[in-house]
Amino acid sequence: MQKAEANLNRASADAESYYASHGTYVGLGDPRTGLHLLDPGLDSGVSTVVVTSERFCLKSVEGHATAWLEGPAGTATDTKPSDCS
């Protein structure tokens, strides 16, 4: 679980950098412009679940562990937030 949470903390920082550059989180999940282009070293188990102009939800899967992070300013957790549907 710790690796999945660490992946999300790294991805969340990347999401904030993306927002600072673009003024929106829209596009964060796009492989041509989003997280994995911004941070090629980001674990491939990290994915975007929900992205709007003002918020995002990320998911990280490591083996049997799944962690979620709703941002901005969220904390990684093993419980899926209700807004991450």
Structure, briefly:
With 85 residues, the protein is α+β, with helices and mostly antiparallel strands. The chain is built from 2 helices and 3 strands; from the N terminus they run ααβββ. The chain starts with a helix and ends in a 14-residue tail after the last strand.
Features of the shown structure:
2 helices; about 30% helix; single chain; three-stranded antiparallel β-sheet; about 80 residues; about 25% strand; alpha+beta
Describe the structure.
The protein has about 80 residues and is α+β, with helices and mostly antiparallel strands. Helix content is about 30%, strand content about 25%. It has helices at about 1-20, 35-40; strands at about 45-50, 55-60, 65-70. Strands 1-2-3 form a 3-stranded antiparallel β-sheet, covered by helices on one side. Strand 1 (about 45-50) and strand 2 (about 55-60) form a beta hairpin. The protein is globular and about 35 Å long.
